[in-house]
């Protein structure tokens, strides 16, 4: 546990000569992707070390779970990660379903997979777009936002919201697919699959972009596992771990998909470019999953019968999903009442923050920005 | 009681929509055209000899013998300076609008389109807004330096206009050390950046200022050496002399006359991007790293000056490259003899002369705008390089490359006869044309390859 007050004092006191300064990257800074403060000790352009100071966006979301009934907490999960709210919904729904001993019907599971993968596409577009923006290229971000806009339109048609979906229910989903929606999705995916030629030419294999990211912020396999990284940050280091495949849930056991991992294609395995490229490949992979799920979509109910008053027996469960930012875990303790006794939410961004200090020793200021961007940190997910 | 002034501009334009269009057209064409005309009339007329002659022959007054002659000369020079300052400001403003519209197209959005026709008055509105805003001086800043820094940058922007030839005779002063003077005075901009970075007393501004100093001073070297190549080819340092040594057709341009010049052109273009703090070298104000860099603490009209310098500098960068490498104002089919004949020996030149001058200004402006477009495209396409990469590119590649170009250009001048240069010119310019055609075709093909994408100019 780092006490930031003491940490700041230490940093200030080690400001020994005129050459070293302590500078706050944040809480308000264009590249911190939300309200985070990176207290950074630098010697000119070279960083001695940078300590992330988190907590500015703490909203007590875990505590709120103890104050509202189980179904009532669903809209709050949206706010845990507003860029990938589908997964936050799904993880919570899974946990409560496990507590109740029910399972969503097959059609609902497929719809969950479709909505989730669309949401992953949307979230990854933000991740890769803002990463390009942080490296100084403005155009890829707007292109990514344009592509994401279409996904958001589709999700809006599905559940009426563009960002905080509140789409999942305990034991199913809120709405069935609207008529004609599947065709629209397929038409969009046709566009998306051909779009990546343009994207790769514009940014992925851009000479300057590759030079900026190759061999920067290298996370070795062992480091990635030791620091508990999850999701694309872990897979970027070459560790093939994905909850969808390795601890299957929902419709994923029926679907065939590849798990892209980093390969060190342009530099060292586990560098910032690998993490970027893993996300790009995951968008392509998600598109395949959505196609499959739409093809196999079974008929039937979208909601299993759940009592109006959700009152599970005392016990504790874990619900985990593969969110856009990696494994998202809900640890839920029930005490037999209609409210949770304790909810703990483990999120990918928070785990990623821990490694920033390790990576920041001796790098350039611009590299710190690249590393933060490559970890795809979403501030509300860090603090909850 | 509510007091209405009746001169509210929004209600005026809402009531008379044509007024907005007329105002836009006036600002879009009227203001630059007026400035061009003023430049055309004033620049050639402001030299002491010509003033003397005009006074003697038209007014019957011997100015050369008058005790007030220096006052008159200075007055005319002030007029020229006024035109140049306004040209820089108007170009800077228009360039911001063009940049935002072009960026909008590149990024699948529209860009400013509200104020005036096609949003053209956006830059006027922005300038007015910035001038009206409070000019905040941070308490801990070095007040004097903080206030003074923008003027250093502005001086660095305006002084090059003295030697930049807009047309055959349209130049404020054709110094015989023109190129040398120009490279010297453009360095003033970095003084402004460094001073503002230091005086702001902010860590971000300091980062930006130091980065700016390191960058601009480093890139002065390859820029200076690559500019030596056209100087060698023309045998003069005078800007007008260098343009006169070239011709109107592409194969007469220095850039295609020898391979060394072609390479030197790209080195000089890259260096001027770095000196002008344009992407991919916009490190001193890197938004995602340094928030706003050296002008992080500035607001109001001082910020407006910094921004004007940044955008108007594009005209200097592009104009310099056009003058030295791309034939400057040379109009195909009009040679030096025709200019001289049109000028005649009378007090005032014939109308034909003014037409030729206007044509040469048009050619120069078109070429310069083409390069400005290139800078804009680069900015919205490329990511930013890192500090060490920026320095590495300069010292490891551009400086040795520029030296190599200089030596090859020397040998070329000594060993290759003029016909050899002409043949090289034809071959290289045809090659450039082929590349341009290939580029356009590849772009169109790539656009059509993405499902649902097409070339669409309907919302422009």
Summed up:
With 384 residues, chain A is of the alpha+beta class. Chain A contains 15 helices and 8 strands. By secondary structure, chain B is mainly alpha-helical.
Describe the structure.
- The complex is a heterodimer of chains A (384) and B (460).
- By secondary structure, chain A is of the alpha+beta class.
- Chain A has one domain (61-383): Cytochrome-c3 Hydrogenase, chain B, CATH 1.10.645.
- Chain A has 15 helices and eight strands.
- A three-stranded antiparallel β-sheet of chain A has the order 1-2-3.
- Chain A is globular and about 70 Å long.
- The mean pLDDT of chain A is 86.
- Chain B is an all-alpha fold and 460 residues long.
- Chain B folds into two domains: 9-132; 135-447, no CATH class.
- Chain B is 70% helix and 0% strand.
- The radius of gyration of chain B is 24 Å and the shape is globular.
- Chain A binds chain B through residues 21, 23, 29-31, 44-45, 132-139, 142-143, 146, 190-191, 193-195, 197-198, 201-203, 206, 208-209, 211-212, 364-367, 369, and chain B through 103, 106-109, 203-204, 207, 210-211, 279-280, 282, 286-289, 291, 380-389, 446, 449-453.
């Amino acid at each position: 546990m780092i006490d930031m007050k003491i940490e700041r004092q230490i940093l200030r006191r080690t400001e020994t000569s005129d050459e070293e300064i302590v500078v706050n990257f944040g809480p308000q800074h264009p590249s911190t992707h939300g309200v985070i403060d990176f207290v950074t000790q630098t010697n000119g352009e070279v960083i001695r070390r940078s300590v992330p100071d988190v907590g500015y966006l703490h909203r007590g979301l875990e505590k709120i779970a103890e104050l509202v009934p189980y179904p009532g907490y669903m809209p709050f999960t949206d706010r845990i990660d507003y860029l990938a709210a589908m997964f936050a919904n799904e993880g919570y729904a899974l946990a409560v379903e496990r507590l109740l001993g029910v399972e969503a019907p097959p059609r609902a599971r497929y719809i969950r997979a479709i909505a989730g993968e669309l949401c992953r596409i949307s979230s990854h577009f933000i991740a890769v777009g803002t990463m390009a923006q942080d490296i100084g290229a403005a155009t890829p971000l707007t292109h990514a936002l344009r592509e994401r806009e279409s996904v958001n339109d589709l999700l809006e048609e599905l559940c009426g919201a563009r960002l905080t979906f509140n789409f999942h229910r305990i034991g199913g989903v809120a709405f069935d697919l609207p008529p004609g929606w599947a065709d629209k999705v397929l038409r969009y995916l046709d566009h998306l699959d051909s779009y990546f030629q343009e994207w790769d030419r514009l940014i992925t294999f851009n000479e300057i972009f590759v030079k900026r990211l190759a061999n920067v912020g290298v996370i070795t396999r062992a480091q990635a596992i030791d620091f508990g990284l999850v999701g694309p940050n872990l897979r970027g280091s070459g560790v093939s771990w994905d909850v969808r495949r390795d601890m299957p849930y929902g419709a994923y056991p029926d679907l065939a998909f590849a798990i892209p991992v980093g390969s060190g294609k342009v530099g060292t395995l586990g560098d910032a470019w690998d993490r970027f490229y893993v996300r790009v490949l995951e968008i392509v992979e998600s598109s395949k999953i959505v196609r499959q799920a739409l093809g196999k979509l079974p008929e039937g109910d979208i909601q299993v019968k759940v009592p109006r008053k959700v009152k599970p027996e005392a016990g504790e469960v874990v619900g985990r999903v593969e969110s856009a930012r990696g494994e998202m875990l809900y640890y839920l303790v029930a005490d037999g009442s209609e409210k949770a006794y304790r909810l703990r939410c483990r999120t990918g961004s928070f785990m990623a923050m821990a490694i920033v200090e390790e990576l920041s020793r001796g790098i350039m200021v611009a590299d710190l920005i690249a590393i933060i961007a490559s970890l795809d940190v979403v501030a509300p997910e860090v603090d909850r | 009681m509510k007091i209405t002034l009746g001169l509210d501009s929004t209600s005026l334009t809402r009531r008379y929509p044509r007024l907005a269009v007329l105002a836009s057209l006036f600002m879009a064409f009227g203001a630059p055209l007026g400035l061009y005309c003023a430049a055309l009339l004033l620049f050639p007329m402001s030299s002491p000899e010509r003033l003397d002659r005009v006074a003697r022959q038209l007014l019957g007054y011997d100015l050369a013998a008058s005790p007030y002659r220096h006052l008159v000369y200075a007055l005319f020079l002030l007029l020229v300076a006024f035109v140049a300052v306004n040209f820089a400001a108007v170009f800077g403003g228009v360039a911001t609008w063009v940049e935002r519209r072009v960026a909008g197209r590149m990024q699948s959005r529209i860009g400013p389109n509200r104020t005036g026709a096609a949003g053209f008055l956006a830059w006027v509105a922005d300038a007015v807004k910035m001038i009206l805003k409070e000019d905040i001086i941070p308490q801990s800043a070095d007040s004097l330096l903080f206030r003074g820094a923008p003027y250093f940058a502005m001086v660095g922007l305006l002084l090059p206009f003295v030697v930049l030839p807009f047309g055959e005779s349209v130049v404020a002063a054709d110094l015989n050390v023109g190129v040398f003077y120009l490279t010297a005075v453009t360095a003033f901009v970095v003084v402004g950046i460094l001073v503002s970075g230091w005086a702001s007393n902010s860590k971000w501004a300091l980062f930006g200022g130091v980065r700016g100093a390191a960058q601009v001073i480093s890139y002065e070297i390859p820029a200076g050496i690559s500019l030596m190549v056209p100087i060698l080819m023309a045998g003069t340092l005078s800007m007008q002399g260098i343009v006169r040594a070239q011709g109107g057709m592409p194969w007469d341009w220095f850039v295609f006359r020898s391979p060394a010049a072609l390479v030197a052109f790209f080195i000089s273009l890259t260096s001027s991007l770095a000196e002008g703090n344009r992407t991919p070298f916009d490190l001193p104000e890197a938004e995602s790293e340094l928030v706003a860099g050296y002008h992080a603490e500035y607001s109001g009209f001082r910020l407006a000056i910094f921004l004007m310098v940044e955008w108007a500098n594009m005209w200097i960068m592009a104009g310099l490259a056009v003058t030295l490498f791309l034939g400057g104002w040379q109009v195909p089919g009009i040679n030096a003899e025709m200019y001289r004949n049109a000028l005649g020996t009378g007090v005032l030149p014939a109308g034909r002369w003014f037409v030729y001058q206007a044509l040469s200004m048009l050619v120069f402006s078109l070429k310069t705008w083409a390069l400005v477009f290139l800078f804009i495209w680069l900015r919205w396409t490329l990511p930013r390089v890192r500090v060490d990469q920026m320095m590495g590119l300069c010292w490891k590649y551009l400086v040795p490359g520029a030296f190599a170009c200089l030596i090859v250009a020397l040998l070329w001048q000594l060993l290759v006869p003029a016909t050899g240069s002409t043949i090289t010119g034809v071959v290289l310019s045809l090659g450039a044309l082929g590349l341009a055609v290939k580029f356009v075709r590849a772009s169109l093909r790539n656009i059509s390859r993405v499902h649902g994408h097409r070339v669409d100019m309907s919302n422009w």
